[in-house]
C-alpha cells in the first residue's frame, strides 16, 4: 500500500489598489519632495521673488535719501519674477527628464501602463507647488515693500484689486511656466536640451524677435509666453498693447498646448 502524499499550498493574499490619478499624484509628489535639490530650488525661487521685492524697496529708500526721483511702482517690486521663472522651468524640466536619464521610467510605466496619468501627475505636482510658492513669494514681496516704504514715509499706493492681480497673476504665470518646462522635458527627454530650449523661449527668443527687421516678427514677440505673461505685472498699458489678463491667458495657453502635445507624444513613443 503506497503512502498518499498530500501537497498543500499556502496562499498569501496581497492587496493591490487600483491605479488612480490621486495615487499617481501622491507618488509623483513623493518623488519630488524626497529629492533635496528640488525642494531647495523651490525655496530659492520664493527667496528670490520676495528678496528682490524687498531689495527694490530698500533701493527706493536709499535713492530718496540721495534726493533722486525714482518711482516705486508696485509691479516693479515683482521684477524678480523674471529670475524666478528660470528656476521654475529648470525644476520642471529636470523633473520630467530625470527618470529618462536614470532609466527609472520603466517601473513607472509598468505601474501606470497608460502613461499619460504619470505625466499628468507630474504636472499637477510641480504646477501646484509653483502656484502656491509663487503666490507666497509675491505676497511676501508686496508686504515687505509696503512695510519698509511705509516706515520710511514713502508712498506705496496699491489697491486691493491691483494687489490681487499681482499675487494671483504671478502665481498663475509661474504655473504656466512650470507646464512649459515639464512639457519640453517630456518632448525632448534631455535635461540639457529641455533647459536650454526653455531659456531660449523665455529669454532669447523675445530679444531676437524684438530686434527683427520685419514688423510682423516684432509683433509676434508680443505673443511669446514671457512677453505676454509678464504684462500681468502692469496696472496700465498703452493703447494697442497686450492687456494684463489676456497676456496671462496667452502664457497659460502656451503651457496647456505644449502639455497636450507632450501627452500625445508620450502615449505613442517608447520609454
Automatic annotation (TrEMBL):
The chain crosses the membrane at residues 38-62, 82-102, 123-150, 162-187, 194-216, 245-265. The keyword Transmembrane helix applies. Keywords: Membrane, Transmembrane, Transmembrane helix. The keyword Isomerase does not apply. It comes from the Bacteria. This is ABC-2 type transport system permease protein. The lineage of its organism: Bacteria, Bacillati, Actinomycetota, Actinomycetes, Micrococcales.
Amino acid at each position: 500500500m503506497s503512502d498518499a502524499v498530500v501537497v498543500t499550498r499556502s496562499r498569501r493574499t496581497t492587496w493591490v489598489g487600483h491605479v488612480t490619478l490621486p495615487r499617481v499624484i501622491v507618488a509623483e509628489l513623493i518623488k519630488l519632495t524626497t529629492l533635496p535639490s528640488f525642494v531647495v530650488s523651490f525655496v530659492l525661487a520664493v527667496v528670490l521673488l520676495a528678496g528682490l521685492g524687498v531689495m527694490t524697496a530698500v533701493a527706493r529708500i536709499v535713492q530718496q535719501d540721495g534726493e533722486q526721483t525714482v518711482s516705486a511702482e508696485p509691479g516693479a517690486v515683482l521684477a524678480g519674477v523674471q529670475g524666478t521663472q528660470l528656476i521654475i522651468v529648470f525644476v520642471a524640466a529636470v523633473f520630467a527628464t530625470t527618470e529618462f536619464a536614470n532609466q527609472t521610467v520603466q517601473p513607472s510605466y509598468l505601474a501606470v501602463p497608460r502613461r499619460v496619468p504619470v505625466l499628468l501627475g507630474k504636472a499637477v505636482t510641480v504646477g501646484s507647488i509653483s502656484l502656491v510658492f509663487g503666490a507666497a513669494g509675491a505676497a511676501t514681496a508686496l508686504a515687505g515693500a509696503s512695510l519698509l516704504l511705509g516706515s520710511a514715509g514713502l508712498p506705496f499706493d496699491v489697491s486691493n484689486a491691483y494687489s490681487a492681480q499681482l499675487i494671483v497673476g504671478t502665481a498663475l504665470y509661474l504655473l504656466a511656466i512650470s507646464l512649459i518646462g515639464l512639457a519640453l522635458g517630456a518632448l525632448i527627454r534631455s535635461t540639457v536640451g529641455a533647459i536650454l530650449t526653455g531659456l531660449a523661449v523665455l529669454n532669447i527668443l523675445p530679444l531676437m524677435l524684438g530686434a527683427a527687421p520685419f514688423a510682423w516678427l516684432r509683433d509676434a514677440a508680443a505673443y511669446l509666453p514671457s512677453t505676454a505673461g509678464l504684462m500681468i505685472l502692469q496696472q496700465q498699458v498703452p493703447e494697442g498693447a497686450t492687456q494684463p489678463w489676456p497676456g496671462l491667458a496667452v502664457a497659460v495657453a502656451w503651457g496647456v498646448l505644449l502639455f497636450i502635445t507632450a501627452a500625445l507624444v508620450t502615449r505613442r513613443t517608447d520609454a
